[in-house]
């Protein structure tokens, strides 16, 4: 990428997005508006109106339910209740993580800056590099829900998937000698009678600021679908250049 172009305008250089990737995002009803942070963040807006015919209806996504998460980044206050709930619900050891929060600082004027917090987790990609490199099929993408799953009994701890993950979303669990990661609380929801947890993820339930929204991207009535397809709303994904097609979307709320 020409860094001189980025210095003039960080959203100028669209050449790094291939025509195939453009078609993929248009098929989801999203129009590309720019690249930010040296190409590590892709800016998207709803394509409703100009590309109304491209907005998919229920049944046109790869999975149904097509589980996804929207993170309204500007609302995050870094209280870490999401992390605490994740640890308690999924028995995450103190050295591990299924979700974390990154901090970013942006200079405003001399002596002043703005701090924003970015929750991150497994992006449950449509083309997950971790699945592609696993030698034992210990990790796979569920054909019904689209969730990227782990089966510890198959894992040999080679950590190839950890290296391949573009989002640094996996860790090695020393207790069962296997890789662990977010599964949208799938196993926890299957094994609990808690009605709230059964409907959503622990991190979403614990958040006091409504930062995280979990739901079915294939259902036009679902809040996730509506947030992503709201006209003029900016939506972006992390590290689009790797071609993984993530299912965690960020908005500026």
Task: Describe the protein in words.
With 253 residues, the protein is of the alpha+beta class. It has one domain (3-251): 2-Layer Sandwich (Alpha-Beta Plaits), CATH 3.30.70. It has helices at 3-8, 19-27, 81-90, 129-133, 160-164, 186-190, 195-199, 202-206, 223-228, and strands at residues 30-36, 41-46, 67-72, 99-107, 113-121, 139-141, 148-150, 170-173, 178-181, 212-216, 234-238, 248-251. The strands form four sheets. It has a six-stranded mixed beta sheet with strand order 1-2-11-12-3-10. The protein has a two-stranded antiparallel sheet with strand order 4-5. A two-stranded antiparallel ribbon has the order 6-7. It is globular. The two termini are 29 Å apart. Residues 1-14, 34-39 and 46-59 have low confidence and may be disordered.
Any descriptors?
single chain; 253 residues; alpha+beta; Alpha-Beta Plaits; 6-stranded mixed sheet; two-stranded antiparallel ribbon; 9 helices; 12 strands; globular
Produce the secondary structure layout.
Blueprint: H1 3-8, H2 19-27, E1 30-36, E2 41-46, E3 67-72, H3 81-90, E4 99-107, E5 113-121, H4 129-133, E6 139-141, E7 148-150, H5 160-164, E8 170-173, E9 178-181, H6 186-190, H7 195-199, H8 202-206, E10 212-216, H9 223-228, E11 234-238, E12 248-251
Parallel strand pairs: 3-12
Antiparallel strand pairs: 1-2, 2-11, 3-10, 4-5, 6-7, 8-9, 11-12
Q: What name does the CATH topology carry? A: Alpha-Beta Plaits
Q: Supply Rg.
A: 18 Å
- Counted up, domains total 1
Secondary-structure-derived class: alpha+beta
Biggest sheet strand order reads 1-2-11-12-3-10
* Largest sheet, strands/sense/barrel: 6 strands, mixed
How many beta-strand segments?
A: 12
Average pLDDT for all residues:
80
Q: Regions with pLDDT < 50 over 5+ consecutive residues?
A: 1-14, 34-39, 46-59
């Amino acid at each position: 990428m020409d860094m001189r172009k980025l210095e003039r305008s960080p959203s100028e250089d669209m050449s790094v997005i291939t025509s195939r990737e453009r078609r993929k995002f248009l098929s989801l009803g999203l129009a590309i508006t720019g690249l930010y942070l040296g190409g590590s963040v892709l800016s998207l807006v709803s394509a409703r109106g100009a590309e109304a015919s491209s907005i998919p209806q229920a049944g046109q996504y790869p999975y149904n339910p097509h589980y996804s998460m929207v993170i309204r980044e500007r609302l995050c206050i870094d209280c870490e209740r999401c992390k605490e709930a994740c640890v308690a619900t999924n028995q995450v050891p103190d050295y591990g993580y299924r979700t974390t929060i990154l901090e970013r600082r942006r200079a405003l004027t001399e002596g002043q800056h703005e701090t924003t917090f970015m929750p991150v987790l497994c992006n449950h990609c449509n083309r997950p590099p971790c699945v592609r490199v696993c030698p034992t099929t210990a990790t796979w993408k569920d054909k019904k829900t689209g969730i990227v799953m782990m089966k510890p009994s198959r894992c040999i701890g080679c950590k190839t998937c950890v290296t391949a993950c573009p989002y640094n979303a996996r860790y090695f669990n020393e207790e069962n000698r296997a890789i662990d990661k977010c599964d949208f609380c799938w196993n926890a929801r299957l094994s609990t009678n808690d009605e709230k947890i059964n409907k959503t993820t622990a991190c979403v339930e614990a958040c006091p600021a409504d930062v995280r929204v979990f739901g079915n991207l294939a259902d036009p009535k679902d809040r996730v679908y509506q947030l992503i397809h709201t006209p003029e709303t900016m939506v972006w994904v992390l590290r689009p250049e790797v071609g993984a097609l993530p299912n965690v979307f960020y908005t500026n709320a």
